[in-house]
Amino acid sequence: MKLRHLDLENYGIHVEQSFAFQPHSLQIVYGRNEAGKSTLLQAVRELLFGFQHAKSNPFAPDSTNKKMKATAQLTMSDGSDLQIVRRQGNKNTLTGNYQDNEIDEDRWKQLISGADQRLYEHVFGFSLKELATGEESLKEANLDEALFGGGLGRLHDYKELLKSIDEETESLFKNRGQKQKINAILADIKALKSELKQSSLRPAEYEEWLTEARLCEEELTRLSTTLDKVYRKQQHLERLRKAHPLWIERQAKRQQLAKLEAPSSFPADALQELSQTRQQSAKLSAEVENLTLDLKQLDQEIAAIQFNTKVIESGEAIQTLLFGIKEVQGYRRDIPLRTQDRQRDIDEAHAILRQIDPKLKLEQIAKFELTLTQRNKIQQLSKTFQKLTTEIESHSPEVERLDREIQEIETTLAEIPQHVAELVERLQSSLDPLRTSLARRSELASHMRKLNADISQRRQSVDAIAGRELDLTNPLPMPMEPTIHRYETELQSLSEQIRAAEASVRETTDELANKNDELRRLEQGARLVSEEELHSARQDRDETWQSLRSQLLGEADATTSKPNPSQAEAFDKQLVHTDQLADERYRHAQMLADQQSMLSTIRSLEERLAAREKHLAQLTATRQETWQAWCAEWKPVELTPKSPQEMLPWRATYLALVETQAEVSQIGQEIAPLDRRIEATTALLREHDLVSSDMAPEEAAVWLESFLKRVQADQQKRDQWEHRRQMNRESRKTAFSQNEKRQQQLAVIQTEASEILSVFETIGDVDLETAADLIQAVEKVQAKLVSAEGLQQRIADMQQGLKQFADQVETVVAATGESLGDMSPENAAQRLGTLLSEAENQRGLRKELEIKRQVRSESLERSQKDLAEVAARLSQWRSQIDAETDEQLEVVSQIVREKQALERDLAELDTQLALVRESEPAQSFQQALKALDVDGLKQELMSATSEHAEAKQLQEQVQRQLGEFDLRLRDVDQTSHSVLALGKIESLQADLSDCLDRLGPLLIAKEMLARAMQAFREENSGQLLTIISQLIEQMTEGRYTKVEHDPDHEGGLILSGPHDLRRTPSQLSTGTREQLYLAIRLAYIRHYCQGAQPLPVLMDDILVNFDDARQIATLKVLMDFDPQIQIIMLTCHQPLVDKVQSLSESIQVTRIDGQPVESPPAKTQPKRKKTPEKSSTPSLF
């Protein structure tokens, strides 16, 4: 598919602009900065795949009345043509025609082989930004990533995708990890499962409380349903109450509307429009009258304008004369001046000749002509003669100077001291080892002092815990660091458990004390009859009754068969007492129930307290055993340990001191050989009496270094002076030899000069010294004569120009028919210019008036037409309602307006009724309003409100009971570790399920990417590598010839070239990496287009980082790339355009602003000075 023509409307800077393209493989679109190149690239992208939404599209027009639109003509790969139009909108934005069939979005996707916008942006239409991003990604990419991700144009996105998948996967799970979410959840679940073994039992009332709580929840559900029904009924009645006045008003409005009669087709705003139409008619009548008067006045003004048409016809000739006035004036001013200059040159030539020889004349100058070779030869011989003469004169002083310097050098050499070479050599070889040994010994001694000071400072805390001064040379057999960490963990865990157990015991003790206090307050508040007390009173009553019954029935002994009055009274009292106790217990039944519940709670708390105190005692014993084991670990060290937290840094400090002490011993061993080496060097110096016996080694080293420097300086001076003496001797010998040669050269020069200067025999003897001045004077005379001849020719040319100008003025005056009298040619030309300006002004004024008259005429026609339309409109309205006058129109319009107002009020009432009705069905609500009884509505509303309040109150009561049961259950649950652990495990398992739901797709996505890359490599790797290698070889002009696997790094990418050149992408320059990435992308474009419809390729300034040679090489690659693929390159660089035009004239270059393209300037050949023809007359030139 190739783009042939593109029209853009309201797209960024391209408001209404067209672009024509050729079907060639490569073409250039040139434009300066901000000319719209990047806009054109984005326009092609959105043409193919749809415009972005206007609010987020930076290229959308500011006005909502303007819409983006793009029209394109394309040619398919089979040669058929198609046209598409892309419009701004939400749906059906693409239309077109292909082979006499309409095109929609589905058909368009088929035609472009299913390509999407992201693929096109990264593969076919890209800029320098995408190229730079891909180039940067190549630094760390392997071969598979470069081919798979870079071929798709998204290497950077591909690497970022893999990185984000790995990071998110590792944040969820990692082998042997601890901080990752899944690892942490699994560790927490494992720890909580171990807690289940330490769970405690719930009280016996727990199941009963659960049953009661469940019943409360069921009751709450039933109450909620009832409450919801009552609430809906209440809201329905409330809506009826609000809607009834609106419904009454709506019915009245409908009755009023039914009484109004007016034509249904008559416009509602006819009254206002009628007024406007009358005003428009009056305005148009006034405009017609005014325009008619203006036309008459313009006709008169046009007829009054008169001018000479012949002057305008001769305008071009007059303009030529005006341009020549200044030149003619310059001629008149320059002719006298140039005449004076000519005469001055001739006078100066005579003066120069008189200086040479008063008898000479200008005509004799030709006799003294020398060729250019002879003049140069004379100048060269003169310079050589002067130089040789000067050198011969300076020979004797130079020889004397050299003899004097040789004598001084020998005196200086005798004063320089000499040293024994063997001793100096031994001392020289000993200096560096001595300095190195001293520096090393000083460094080691300083380090040893620091280490000893560090040991003294740090061992105080170590000895304080040990209770004695420890021997740092023999390390103690201390426990290992993991053992200390183990004891630290165990003791810390036991301490935390003991603190938690103590807190639990305190909480239980406090809770038990509070419950006992509540029980005492309850018992003190009223006398509570216990069940035992009531049972005892009833038992006494029953015994007394049995006794009385036995006596009354004769079942007792005869002596006691008669009832005892006191016994009967006691029974009566017991009977009354028992009833009183029962009544009192009944009155305080709730308090008794609370007492029983509190006693049960107290017993439960006492059992819990005993269990927790026992658990605390067990933890304390376990901690004591662990501490004893901890102390046993330190028995071999013979010290009483502190806590593991304190012993761990103590152990580290002790071991560090042991290492430091070992380092001190090692330093002492290194210092001993250094001392021996230093002593050997100082002994050598004392042996030759170079230093005193009491001099320190450091001072001896400084003295030795100074001594060797002096010896070296003396030897350098001796060598320099001996070298200078030898050079002076050789210079003296050479000076005598050169002086003889100069004498011979002078004789040869004199002979050659005499032969050349024989032309000056008429003047006399001319030696070599005066020949140069004579030749220079002759040249000056000749130059003056040439200048005078040129001035004479210039004067003749100016006189000829004056004559031609006068003839032209006479011709123009005759053609115009103007009479200018005796004016000079210049004044006549200026007068003609004035006449031309006046005639053009008159013609322009007449043309302006004619245009103005045409505009007035067109306006008159439009006004007359509009006036006729207004009259026809009024007539049509009157005929529509059978009205004869405009007053009848006004009456009907007023009725229509009132009808429209009522309809608006009805619509507003319907809206208000709909708002009040909310979600109720409209039909049933209307029927309820029709059958509504206002008084009955009030009664029903009051009843529903009361019923809702009662249900609400009962619901709150049940919620309070449920809250009490929940509180009891929560108190029990909080004391049960198993319930808490199970709850946490369930929560963690839910979190684990969520994490696994996230981890699964990530692992699947990573595996799918790996498989896709492997499949792409197996199918296309070889073919793509061959294409990439060919392209990179052409782009780099043969520097790199192949792209292949790196054998040293698995999956690596490497570029190879001649002479064993091998580079990885990270070793390449930025420009070369961009060329490699471009080659990968071009290879993928060719590979993609083999099985799909080719798309136009647009490149925006991608050659910026290429040098000139590789720019040309890349342009050649793009020219010959593929005839089926269209490449459009956008650029703002004129040199790149020049390079393209220099490569081939067939490449189309288009300016984005539509202006013609400037051709590259032709290379100008350097101008060669014309050699003047030789004159037959002899001359010096």
Automatic annotation (TrEMBL):
Pfam families the record matches: AAA_27 (PF13514)
Region spans: Disordered: 718-739, 1151-1181
Keywords: Coiled coil
UniProt xrefs under InterPro entries: P-loop_NTPase (IPR027417), YhaN_AAA (IPR038734)
Coiled-coil regions listed: 274-308, 484-532, 860-961
Gene3D superfamilies in the record: 1.10.287.1490, P-loop containing nucleotide triphosphate hydrolases (3.40.50.300)
Annotated ranges, domain YhaN AAA: 1-206
PANTHER family: DOUBLE-STRAND BREAK REPAIR RAD50 ATPASE, PUTATIVE-RELATED
Protein name: YhaN AAA domain-containing protein
